[in-house]
Design brief:
Layout: H1 2-12, H2 22-34, H3 38-44, H4 46-56, E1 60-63, E2 86-90, E3 112-116, H5 123-131, H6 133-138, E4 141-145, H7 152-156, E5 166-170, H8 178-188, E6 193-197
Parallel strand pairs: 2-3, 3-4, 4-5, 5-6
Antiparallel strand pairs: 1-2
Length: 199
């Protein structure tokens, strides 16, 4: 009798919260990959911890003084923790998301970031990027391409990146008012080269 009542209740559920649907599984796994371990950042330094995060999520990094991209998590360089400073980030097709952006807090030497086809990049991510004081002082180039969750709000938040010299915005269907974006960036960053390839 008791079993019958329980089975009736279970059969009445449309979708169980622990569904095996692949979309939810990958979303959960990607959130795990983005989780910030503040002890790890303290122990190995911001550049090593951010490198681990980015590579774990499918991105690549390039260090100052090196031409080769680092993309293999298992071949991250060893040695003195302050030797390898991230200069460039290519997050093409990666699963980086807002909850992981605290990894970037201590990065002082990042000059270029490319966000291309990043499913989880949204306005909150770009707002966080614009708020990071170290990036405000170092970031020179930013490319945002085919990130479907980005809108005008997120792009406008980037005007805080005061050293930015080049901004490419391409295939962003959430952008509604291109003219306003141009005006905001002309006023905030007059020397910025803004390239728009928006439909």
């Amino acid at each position: 009798m008791l079993f019958g009542k329980i089975s009736q209740q279970l059969c009445g559920l449309k979708k169980l919260p622990w569904s095996y649907d692949s979309k939810y599984f990958w979303g959960w796994l990607n959130a795990v990959f983005n989780k910030v371990d503040y002890e790890r950042i303290r122990d190995v330094g911001p550049n090593r911890a951010a490198s681990e995060w980015l590579l774990r999520c499918g991105a690549m990094v390039r260090y100052h003084g090196q031409e080769r991209w680092q993309q293999d998590y298992n071949n991250l360089p060893t040695g003195p923790l302050d030797k390898y400073k991230i200069r460039e980030i290519d997050a093409t097709n990666s699963c980086i998301m807002n909850i992981g952006f605290d990894h970037m807090e201590g990065l002082q030497h990042v000059e270029k970031i490319k966000l291309c086809k990043c499913y989880y990049i949204e306005d909150d991510c770009l707002e966080r990027l614009g708020q990071l004081e170290n990036l405000q002082k170092s970031l020179l180039e930013l490319e945002i391409i085919s990130c479907g969750n980005v809108t005008d709000r997120g792009i406008i938040a980037l005007h805080h990146l005061r050293k930015l010299k080049y901004l490419l915005l391409c295939d962003l269907p959430g952008i509604r008012d291109k003219e306003n974006l141009v005006q905001v960036f002309k006023a905030a960053l007059p020397s910025l080269e803004l390239k728009l390839d928006l439909k």
